[in-house]
């Protein structure tokens, strides 16, 4: 190694120092942080206990009681400052995302940009928490709805978007008047510490944020479980696997809490005869191989019309064979590492199962670098079965051909997950059919772009086993507030609704 080049661990430590994360928050503890880039240890973090979690919930509850009374545009000022601090630290935090999640430098920066974007969105929204005014059937009455802060929000995030998903939730929750407790993935605790330090700077500048308004708890699943089970946590927003959601969803529902679940995806693209194949090629490549196939929006299935299969599939294979795989920090590689050895094993298992069902695999082999690097796999499948029906969190694209439009829509929808989808066509009818009630059953349906890389302005989330939650843009803010319907009688009479008579 070049004597002047810091190790990944040294670089991470230097960034954390500059962002104001104390050494005691990342040394001497029991949670070992690693960079998937080299497999190096990057920290040993002290972890929070269940008792710490209970205490955090109580502090958050107190903070909420103060914060809910602060006018929403004033709450927006805190989030505006957070956006400013994120702009100032974008390069550092983006680099740390690349170190800890293994993303390319561009994607690491993009993740921080997504945080900045949601802050901007939330600041505007802080003056737009609109309720309806509703026509009443009674004379001298007025009916309206008011949106109130909800309470303590527990945010559980995954390794693959270690900081943006917190920001989607926190920026909205804060302007909505809620307090936030964050349990990040055990695989990405350093970016969480860094983000918390950045938030602390914004809060210090703001000056009047109550103690414990946005807290971070580093640790294991017992923290998440304590948040999920606490009746004092009004909303759980959890991102992760469908398996995790099957546990979290019913537990929160059993106490009549609210949840926003953003779970697995098994996202597909459909290539039609009229598609612009050059554009489709690039969109499919980014969708399937970007972030080493570790986005919940990653394209995992591709249906190519049989008349364009010969024109497209060989070009896809070429792209798969030539894409650069390597260290995202020291090279321009487009594909970085898998997060860990378990991800590698899961990928190999899925590929073996696909081969056993007649799949022809291009790529998928280990790349000889420290860490877990693998060439993305493209698998030509005779039919949609076996591993094609599951989400494997790795870069595998299953490619199938189609003939009949209704049939391909049925195939498209015949999986458990319902997050993202796309069609490549220049035919108006196909496009509209795909976007119609009888088309894609996903929460996100795109035309002539891939399945991943959504902007924050739209509501983000999906149907079926994806969990049904919506985060980020549009009216997702309503999930972080409670609605009161108010009827006001300004007359001197008391007419009853529905014409009911009750004279005493
Ligand atoms: C995720 O993978 O959990 O649409 C989120 C995208 C990103 C967010 C992905 N904006 O790919």
Short structural summary:
The protein is 38% helix and 20% strand. With 504 residues, it is of the alpha/beta class.
Structure description:
With 504 residues, this protein is an alpha/beta fold. Helix content is 38%, strand content 20%. The protein has 14 helices and 23 strands. Helix 3 (72-88) packs across helix 7 (189-206) and helix 10 packs across helix 11 (309-322). The radius of gyration is 24 Å and the shape is globular. The model has no long low-confidence stretch (mean pLDDT 97). The structure holds 2-aminohexanedioic acid. The site of 2-aminohexanedioic acid has 11 residues, from loops.
Radius of gyration: 24 Å
Strand content: 15-25%
Bound molecules: 2-aminohexanedioic acid
Oligomer: single chain
Q: What is the overall pLDDT average? A: 97
> How many separate helices?
14
What is the spatial order of strands in the main beta sheet? 12-15-16-11-10-18-19
Low-confidence stretches: none
Query: How would you characterize the largest beta sheet?
Result: 7 strands, mixed
Shape: globular
Secondary-structure blueprint:
Layout: H1 8-18, E1 31-34, E2 41-45, H2 50-67, H3 72-88, H4 90-101, H5 105-125, E3 133-134, E4 141-149, E5 152-156, H6 164-175, E6 179-183, H7 189-206, E7 214-216, H8 221-229, E8 233-239, H9 242-254, E9 258-262, E10 267-271, H10 277-289, E11 299-305, H11 309-322, H12 341-356, E12 360-363, E13 366-367, E14 373-374, E15 377-380, E16 396-402, H13 405-413, E17 417-418, E18 420-424, H14 428-435, E19 444-447, E20 459-460, E21 463-464, E22 471-472, E23 481-489
Parallel strand pairs: 5-6, 5-8, 6-7, 8-9, 10-11, 10-18, 11-16, 15-16, 18-19
Antiparallel strand pairs: 1-2, 3-4, 4-23, 12-15, 13-14, 17-21, 20-22
Helix pairs in contact: 1-4, 2-8, 3-5, 3-7, 4-5, 4-7, 5-6, 10-11
Bound molecules: 2-aminohexanedioic acid.
Residues 114, 160-161, 165, 239, 295-297, 452-454 line the site of 2-aminohexanedioic acid.
């Amino acid at each position: 190694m070049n004597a002047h080049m810091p190790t990944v661990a040294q670089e991470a430590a230097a960034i954390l120092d500059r962002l104001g994360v104390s050494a005691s928050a990342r040394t001497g503890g029991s949670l070992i942080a690693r960079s998937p880039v080299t497999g190096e240890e990057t920290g040993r973090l002290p972890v929070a206990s269940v008792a710490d979690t209970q205490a955090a919930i109580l502090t958050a509850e107190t903070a909420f009681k103060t914060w809910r009374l602060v006018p929403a545009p004033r709450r927006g000022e805190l989030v505006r400052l957070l956006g400013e601090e994120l702009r100032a630290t974008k390069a550092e935090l983006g680099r740390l995302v690349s170190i800890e999640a293994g993303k390319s430098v561009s994607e690491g920066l993009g993740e921080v940009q997504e945080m900045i974007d949601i802050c901007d969105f939330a600041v505007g929204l802080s003056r737009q928490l609109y309720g309806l005014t509703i026509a009443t059937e009674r004379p001298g009455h007025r009916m309206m709805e008011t949106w109130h802060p909800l309470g303590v929000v527990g945010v559980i995030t995954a390794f693959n978007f270690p900081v943006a998903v917190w920001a989607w939730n926190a920026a909205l929750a804060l302007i909505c008047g809620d307090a936030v407790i964050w349990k990040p993935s055990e695989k990405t605790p350093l970016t969480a510490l860094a983000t918390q330090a950045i938030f602390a700077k914004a809060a210090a500048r703001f000056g009047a944020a109550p103690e414990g308004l946005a807290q971070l708890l580093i640790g294991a699943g017992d923290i998440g479980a304590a948040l999920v089970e606490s009746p004092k946590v009004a909303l759980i927003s959890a991102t992760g696997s469908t398996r995790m959601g099957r546990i979290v969803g019913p537990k929160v529902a059993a106490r009549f809490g609210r949840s926003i679940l953003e779970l697995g995806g098994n996202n597909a693209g459909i290539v039609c005869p009229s598609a612009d194949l050059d554009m489709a090629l690039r969109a499919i490549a980014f969708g399937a191989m970007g972030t080493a196939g570790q986005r919940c929006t990653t394209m995992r299935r591709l249906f190519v019309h049989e008349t364009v299969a010969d024109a497209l599939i060989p070009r896809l294979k070429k792209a798969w064979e030539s894409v650069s795989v390597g260290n995202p920090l020291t090279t321009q590689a487009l594909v970085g590492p898998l997060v860990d050895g378990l991800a590698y094993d899961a990928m190999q298992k899925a590929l073996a199962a696909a081969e056993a069902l007649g799949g022809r695999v291009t790529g998928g082999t280990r790349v000889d670098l420290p860490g877990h690097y693998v060439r993305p796999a493209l698998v030509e499948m005779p039919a949609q079965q076996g591993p094609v029906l599951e989400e494997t969190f790795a870069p595998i694209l299953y490619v199938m051909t189609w003939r009949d439009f209704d049939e391909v829509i049925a195939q498209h929808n015949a999986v458990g997950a319902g997050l993202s989808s796309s069609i490549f066509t220049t035919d108006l009818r196909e496009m509209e059919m795909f976007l119609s009630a009888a088309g894609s059953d996903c929460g996100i349906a795109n035309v002539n772009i891939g399945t991943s890389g959504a902007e924050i302005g739209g509501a983000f989330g999906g149907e079926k086993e994806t969990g049904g939650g919506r985060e980020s843009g549009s009216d997702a803010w309503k999930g972080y507030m409670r609605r009161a319907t108010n009827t006001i009688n300004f007359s001197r009479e008391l007419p009853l609704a529905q014409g009911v008579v009750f004279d005493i």
